[in-house]
Structure formats: C-alpha cells, structure tokens
Specification:
This protein is mainly β and about 200 residues long. Helix content is about 5%, strand content about 40%. The chain has two domains: about 15-80, no CATH class; about 85-200, Adenovirus Type 5 Fiber Protein (Receptor Binding Domain), CATH 2.60.90. The chain has one helix and 14 strands. Strands 8-13-10-11-12-9-5-6-7-14 form a ten-stranded antiparallel sheet, with no helix packed on it. A four-stranded antiparallel sheet has the order 3-2-1-4.
Length: about 200
C-alpha cells in the first residue's frame, strides 16, 4: 500500500490509494465490512456475514466506503482503548479506618470489560492505631467483586518493620487490611503503616 491510515468518516478516496494489498474497512455503526478489490470497486459483506443484496458482489465507490460512519481500517489499525465502550477509568478516595484519625489516599482504577485493576499510590499511609481491625472504604460500587478476593500489601504494625500484609476485598466493597499474610489483627496502639500494591480481579 502506498498509503494506509486509520480513518473515521472522512470521504477521502486517497485513504484507499495504493497499488498492492487489500484494505479492509469496518463500519462500526452497521457492522458492514468493505474489502477493496480493484480501483474504486469494493465488495461489501454485511454484519450477518452475507453479501449485501444477495448478489455475488455489490460495489460502491471508495469515497462512499470511506464516508461510512465510524469506518475503521483494519490494516495498520491503531485503537485508543479509552474510546471503547468496554473501557472506563477513574479514581476514588480510599479512607483508612481503625486509626484515631482517618487518613486518605487517592487510588486509581481501570476497568476493561469485567477486569478491574486498582492502583494505590506507592506511598505510605499511616495513622495512630485505636483498633485491632483496619480497612479501607471508598471503593465505587461498580467495582465491587462478585466474591471476596485477596491480595498482598506491605504493612508495619506498632512502628515495627514492614512485612507482607494482606488485603481482602469483600463483595460489599470493604478492603480489609491485615498486618501479615496470615491475616493477623493489628495492635490497637502505636503507628500502623501500609503501602498498597497494584492488584487486579474480575467482577
């Protein structure tokens, strides 16, 4: 191909220029597929995988194919995932419960289909403990897992050395935090510190 580009909607025949190759266009609105064969002639296959109008082939001009709403070139396709309907992203305020104050962090999230990835900042969140239980609140309801899941973090109990701690995320969206990988409770005094790790799960 002399020229190949992703395209959405402009009626520019040069999108199909070239002496070799078989460019393909998909109309995201109708699901129709257009395959360039020669010159300004294309075969069109409908979203039902049948040739349109029931003929051996149906043709229309390249300009018309290019003007189809939201046409996307499949050869050398470049897709911005953030524009897809299955993709969403955002952030929420995670509040640490179980301390004399309520320290907070901003956690980021990305959802692609049913897969969720949570990214806490790579910084310490800490407070003076007043409870043996610790948890984070603030997870958006749309990101609650269907069943409880577990992942790891870094935890320092009562000002001690950091060890591998445990996160458990319930179906109600509560992120419980434990001071070690065995799920042990915290000391109800002293400084509790936590560093979250990125984690993923399916809804």
């Amino acid at each position: 191909m002399a020229e190949v580009r992703s395209k959405t909607g402009a009626a520019t025949a040069s999108d199909f220029s070239g002496s070799t190759g078989t460019p393909i266009v998909v109309d995201q609105t109708t699901g129709d597929i257009a395959v360039l064969k020669t010159g300004d002639t294309v075969f069109i296959v409908g979203s039902d995988k049948a040739l349109l109008a029931g003929s051996a082939s149906q043709t229309f001009s390249v300009a018309a194919a290019t003007a189809a709403a939201h046409a996307v070139r499949l050869d050398q396709l470049s897709v911005d995932l953030t524009t897809l309907p299955i993709y969403s992203q955002g952030s929420f305020t995670a509040t640490l419960v179980g301390c004399t104050t309520s320290p907070t962090q901003t956690w980021k999230w990305v959802k692609v289909g049913s897969m969720v990835t949570i990214t806490p900042p790579n910084t310490v969140i800490s407070g003076t403990s007043n409870s043996t239980g610790k948890s984070f609140t603030g997870l958006p309801a749309s990101l609650y897992p269907a069943t409880s899941i577990a992942t790891f973090c870094q935890a320092s109990d009562n000002g001690g050395a950091y060890t591998v701690g445990l996160f458990t995320i319930s179906a109600a969206g509560v992120i419980a935090v434990y001071k070690d990988a065995n799920g042990s409770n915290w000391t109800a005094s002293g400084t509790s510190s936590i560093v979250g790790n990125i984690f993923s799960y399916c809804l």
